[in-house]
Design brief:
With 262 residues, this protein is mainly beta. It has two domains: 121 residues, Rieske Iron-sulfur Protein; 115 residues, no CATH class. It contains three helices and 16 strands. A hairpin with a 5-residue loop joins strand 15 and strand 16. The longest helix is centred in the middle third of the chain and has 8 residues. It is elongated and about 75 Å long. The structure holds FE2/S2 (inorganic) cluster (FES).
């Protein structure tokens, strides 16, 4: 059985795409936990999410269009017969009906959608926890790095496990910040929280090439002072400080992480 079929996973927020990936005038499809959804922008540019299936005859709503000609619009219209749906999924327009704007009872299945930290977040059912708070995301002293907005053929928890594993530095990152001749993982501590845990570690790393410029440090070695936060089930944010006082990064991640590139 696929882990992602566990129903409880439908009750968490997931960052599905950057804000910039969703235009005002066009719906965009996404598959979350095996379910096809459509993202679009409703009134005032507010993000909305519906199941990507028109309840009329099953066409994909993501192939439809934004219909401005409805009260309290815009609405998301199906490309097959033009039925239109509001952000709550309610059918607000049936073009061929005698009274088109009377709409119909029922409609498309709505999901929870929100904008935060420059990303669009979706929860398929009533979320058990808030969208993760990342104080550094709005702090201009931090250089923020969002990584990997792309599909990965890997289990979500495997990505999370890798995110907190400092033992792979000397091998996977041997050409950049890893220290091949010292493969011992740095000691770390774990603080459990209501939403997951916080891992803290001070990991010695190589300081090569462009790293010297970026970190404003000429030594061949430095230390990453890492604070990694895990938010159930598939979200991780990391803060990395350096002895030079340079706070380096913090950003959201589902299939994304926040450490500098390998
Ligand atoms: S299938 Fe969507 S309006 Fe007919």
């Amino acid at each position: 059985m696929l882990a992602t079929r566990q129903k409880i996973l439908r009750r968490f927020w997931y960052p599905v795409m950057p804000e910039t990936a969703l235009p005002d005038a066009k719906p965009v499809p996404f598959r979350l936990l095996g379910q096809d959804i459509v993202l679009w922008r409703g009134r005032g540019g507010a993000v909305a999410a519906l199941a990507d299936r028109c309840p009329h005859r099953g066409a994909k709503l993501s192939t439809g269009f934004i219909d401005e000609a409805v009260p309290d619009g815009p609405a998301l219209a199906c490309g097959d017969h033009g039925w239109a749906y509001g952000a709550d999924g309610r059918c607000v327009k049936v073009p061929k009906a005698a009274d088109p704007l009377r709409g119909l009872k029922g409609g498309a299945r709505p999901h929870h959608a929100a904008s935060r930290h420059g990303w669009i977040w979706v929860a398929l059912e009533t979320p058990l926890a808030d969208i993760p708070d990342i104080p550094e995301a709005a702090d201009p002293r931090f250089r923020r790095i969002d990584e990997f907005h792309e599909p990965w053929a890997v289990a979500g928890l495997r990505i999370m496990e890798n995110s907190f594993d400092t033992a792979h530095f000397s091998y996977v990152h041997a050409a950049t910040f890893g220290i091949p001749e010292d493969p011992r993982p740095a000691p770390s501590t774990i603080e459990h929280t209501d939403w997951g845990f916080v891992m803290r570690s001070e990991a010695p790393v190589s300081n090569r090439g462009i790293g010297k410029e970026l970190l404003k440090s000429n030594g061949d070695r430095t230390v990453r002072i890492i604070e990694g936060r895990w938010f159930l089930p598939f979200f991780r944010a990391s803060r990395i400080d350096y002895p030079t006082g340079l706070p380096t990064s913090c950003a959201p991640a589902r299939r994304r992480s926040t450490t500098p590139p390998a």
